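Sanity check

After download, print the first record. It should look like this:
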Amino acid sequence: MRHYLTYQHNVQRYFKEHSDKYDGVIIPLSIVTAFPSGTYGFIRALCSAHPDKQYAIDPRNALFQKKWNRDNVRPPHEKMAAALGEPYVGKALAQPLCVSDVSDDDVLDAHVKHTVEMQLQFSSRSEDARKLEKYKKLLGISSLGALGVPQFIIPPYYQFSNNADQWFTVNQRCVAAALKYNKDVPVRPVFHFQEWAAVDWGACHTWLASLETEEFWYYPNFFKEHEAPSEELKAYRKTVEAASENGLKPAVLFGGYYAILMSKYGLQGFGNGIGYGEWRDSGYHRGGTAATRIYLLKLHRYIDAAAAQYLVEQDPEYFGSDTDIVAGYIESGVSLVEMALNEALDHFMECRRQEIDFVESHPLPAIVAELDETMSRLEGIGPLEQEKYGISLAKWKAAVE
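Expected structure tokens:
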């Protein structure tokens, strides 16, 4: 299962120091346009140091489809719009895009061409040698190889509610147009939707197969695995199974441990940010830095440091042995509340790799048994903990069984 990290310029160290724990980098267009020199320099150096790493640019078009305060348009929004071309520059910075804004064939075709060419041209950017020297030193390499084009293109995509939604048709047209301008670079479409059960996935998969496009992304908007209803979790699993049975290779653009579990049913990959990003609302536009929280491996989730400390105190053998970082705090008698953000993120990267390795190396009954063990341990601590953290694990168990 391929693991992609969402790139942020302020967490470059973790991409470097945990290079063995992920397979590729998804770069948001907002980062490409806000920090063009640094993004190019780092990605080029990273791929020179690790030629097996994949990278791609996420155009995040749906942001401009959503309602948010356009009185607060900032330079990153303006730069994104400029990179995407019309109708973003003229319309989307003032108000949300409508289907009618991209209905005209010439407008849609020009917009898709512009978006695809922007991704293809990223690798040919020209930068000052002094700036590139910084990234050679950061990655510990003596020379920079040429940066190749992205391993795949993400065509423009917009959120839709179901197959009858006109935005769904717009997405199909965007994919068809992208296949004209991709210059033999594989195109990986994005299905960006609200509810798994609301979509006719059979029709979606048949359409993909007709394009001879095997790999693609699911992107359920703001899908929180720990809060999702059982019906949605089951629909997620059945959708992945159906895609795999039809010879397709699905991945999910944002996901956590439940996405990793879906590898047992055919999911080929997933993405997340470092310290955040297991779900994402495509209308979120403010940015920011992740708060310091603790990822508890047995819970497969982030919780605040005080709650993590309490669980560790109640059952240190089970909840306190996730990584050497957490074990060190326990042995020294220092509260997890004192953990700095950089340590919390290192700890998360270790946990995520352990989750992937565990699922890859164990049969499903053993994975379910671990969920059972965690729920039993929570019940031993108290009904409040079982209700707060155990219910989602029980829903996961039911969904995969």
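If your output differs, re-run the checksum step. Summary of this record's structure: The mean pLDDT is 95.
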